[in-house]
Amino acid sequence: MAVERTLSIIKPDATERNLTGKINSYIEAAGLRIIAQKRIQLTLNQAEAFYAVHKERSFFGELVDFMISGPVVVQILEGENAIATYREVMGATNPANATDGTIRKDFAIDVQNNSVHGSDAPETAALETAFFFSGIEITG
Ligand code: CMP
User: Fold this and answer.
1) Which of 94, 77, 75 lies closest to 86 in space, CA to CA?
2) Is 117 a catalytic residue?
3) Cα 93 to middle of ligand 1, angstroms
4) Taking the CA of residue 5 as centre, how many other CA atoms within 13 Å lie in the half-sphere pointing to its CB?
5) Is residue 117 in contact with ligand 1, taking CB distance under 6 Å?
6) Catalytic residue among 117, 125, 129, 132
7) Residue 35 to residues 6, 28, 65, 140, Cα–Cα distance (Å)
8) Would you call 113 exposed, middle or buried from its count of C-beta atoms within 10 A (0-12, 13-18, 19+)?
9) 3-state SS, one letter per residue, for the chain
């Protein structure tokens, strides 16, 4: 297995409920290392650009409104098979379908207010990490 990096976002529904530390404990318990992290307030333009792949979806407007409704914590996670590992730790997009013990099962409210985002493939992980972080902000 290769060491990978993936982008994680702790979303506004989770920062609002003060869950950053609890979510980080799930990440670290899975053997993933948080090698970059910052708490930011996204602008409308930034949220639209980040989720541009979803711009034709019916939920796009609500999604960007949600993502700018409060601060987010953006992170780069590093570890063996980090992309798939983090997707397992997050659980299904809709918490109603998530497995016990996953972040979304334990903390998410609904399919939109689903507490975390994680990259879905190596190509998107590279694009998404570069969207938020410059090289000087990452220390593995
Ligand atoms: P995320 O993994 O960040 O990718 C796209 C986001 O759109 C998703 O998590 C949810 O927060 C949001 N979303 C809202 N409605 C839906 C839906 N019906 N299906 C998938 N994603 C949705």
Assistant:
1) 77
2) yes
3) 7
4) 17
5) yes
6) 117
7) 10, 11, 28, 5
8) middle
9) CCEEEEEEEECHHHHHCCCHHHHHHHHHHCCCEEEEEEEECCCHHHHHHHCHHHCCCCCHHHHHHHHCCCCEEEEEEEEECHHHHHHHHHCCCCHHHCCCCCHHHHHCCCCCCCCEEECCCHHHHHHHHHHHCCHHHCCC
97 CB less than 6 Å from ligand 1? no
Distance CA 132, CA 37 (A): 10
Angle 5-12-30 from CA coordinates, rounded to 5°: 35
User: Whole-model pTM?
Assistant: 0.97
Comparing C-alpha atoms, which of 137, 131, 133, 91 is closest to residue 114?
A: 91
pLDDT tens digits, one per residue of 47-106: 999 999 999 999 999 999 999 999 999 999 999 999 999 999 999 999 999 999 999 999
